[in-house]
């Protein structure tokens, strides 16, 4: 008869394996269900909008038999459930069709323009986190003071003011009047032929190639739209930081730290903020995902050649393949960042691992 301790160890090991398997299964099920829901929404949107994909390809003056033949080639004459299966299979393989506007495969166009959106959202999130976290901490420490009210007003403006209005006002002031920034776009036309992008991330490419004049020009182009997105990100991050810090400063370990004679600076920045940083990871990640999917108006105002501007131009030209393909890519990135932030949250906070 085996010892009791070995039986207990085997039982615990099997329970751990079962818990890990269950967690992985739930994770995979969540990803599959969410992504299928995204595909279902985009599919039915593509079927209810008043745009005929066949007419968008051949034109509204094409003969009826030509339109019908194109509809058959696209599978639009098949039952709806059959069309959805084909749509899911093509989407999973990265085949979103051909863009009517550029005559290129949609995925090729997205691979070309998406780095610009990632670069812009990264700059915006960096600015938002660098300024939002300290402001949130300061507002929590000075709760009820004029500093707290000022930080809350700044955040309220960030939530309330339409981004297109603030973008136009910023262009009028910093570009037209003060000439502190470059005109809308991503790079000056002077450098379009002397600068050769490699990765698609212009700031990284210019730094790697040590073209400092190009890097300065890129900075003058990105600082205004990136700063605008950073301001809206800062409003969200500062508000959530303030909320998390108020919760941490009310905990018993803060009282104990003060009773031990620790300095207020150490208590705030090395104890309270460290614990508040765990949920802040999720907040910053979701803010980044929000900038990736919500920078359409910013890219349009500043003529930023990213995915948002690509989708806008495609929508104006009834290019349904490009619109749906861009929507799926943005949705997929949002799902991925959301799941990644959840994994990081569980990794950094041991208390959530048993949930």
UniProtKB/TrEMBL annotation:
Location of the protein in the cell: Cell membrane
PROSITE patterns: ABC_TM1
One term of GO molecular function: dipeptide transmembrane transporter activity
Domain ABC transmembrane type-1, residue spans: 114-341
Membrane-spanning intervals of the chain: 17-45, 120-141, 153-176, 218-237, 276-302, 322-345
Membrane topology term: Multi-pass membrane protein
Pfam families recorded: BPD_transp_1, BPD_transp_1_N
Keyword field: Cell membrane, Membrane, Transmembrane, Transmembrane helix, Transport
PANTHER family the UniProt entry points to: D,D-DIPEPTIDE TRANSPORT SYSTEM PERMEASE PROTEIN DDPB-RELATED (PTHR43163:SF8), DIPEPTIDE TRANSPORT SYSTEM PERMEASE PROTEIN DPPB-RELATED (PTHR43163)
Protein name: Oligopeptide ABC transporter, membrane spanning protein
Species assigned in the record: Agrobacterium albertimagni AOL15
């Amino acid at each position: 008869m085996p010892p009791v301790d070995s039986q207990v160890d085997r039982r615990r090991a099997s329970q751990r394996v079962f818990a890990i398997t269950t967690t992985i299964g739930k994770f995979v099920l969540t990803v599959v269900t969410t992504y299928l829901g995204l595909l279902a929404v985009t599919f039915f949107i593509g079927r209810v909008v008043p745009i005929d994909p066949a007419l968008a390809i051949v034109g509204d003056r094409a003969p009826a038999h030509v339109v019908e033949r194109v509809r058959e080639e696209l599978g639009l004459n098949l039952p709806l459930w059959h069309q959805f299966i084909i749509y899911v299979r093509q989407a999973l393989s990265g085949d979103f069709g051909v863009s009517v506007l550029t005559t290129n495969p949609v995925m090729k166009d997205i691979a070309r323009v998406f780095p610009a959106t990632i670069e812009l959202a990264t700059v915006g999130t960096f600015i938002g986190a660098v300024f939002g976290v300290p402001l949130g901490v300061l507002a929590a420490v000075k709760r009820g003071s004029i500093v707290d009210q000022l930080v809350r007003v700044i955040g309220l403006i960030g939530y309330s003011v339409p981004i297109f209005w603030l973008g136009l006002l910023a262009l009028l002031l910093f570009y037209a009047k003060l000439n502190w920034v470059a005109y809308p776009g991503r790079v000056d036309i002077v450098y379009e032929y002397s600068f050769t992008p490699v990765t698609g991330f212009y700031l990284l490419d210019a730094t790697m190639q040590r073209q400092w004049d190009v890097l300065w020009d890129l900075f003058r182009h990105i600082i205004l739209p990136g700063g605008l997105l950073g301001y809206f990100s800062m409003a969200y991050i500062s508000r959530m930081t303030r909320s998390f810090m108020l919760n941490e400063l009310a905990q018993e370990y803060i009282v104990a730290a003060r009773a031990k004679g620790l300095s207020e600076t150490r208590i705030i920045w090395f104890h309270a903020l460290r614990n508040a940083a765990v949920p802040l990871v999720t907040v910053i990640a979701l803010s980044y995902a929000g900038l990736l999917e919500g920078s359409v108006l910013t890219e349009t105002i500043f003529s930023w050649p990213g995915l948002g501007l690509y989708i806008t131009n495609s929508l104006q030209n009834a290019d349904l393949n490009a619109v749906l393909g861009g929507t799926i890519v943005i949705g997929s990135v949002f799902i991925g960042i959301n799941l990644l932030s959840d994994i990081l949250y569980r990794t950094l906070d041991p208390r959530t691992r048993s949930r």
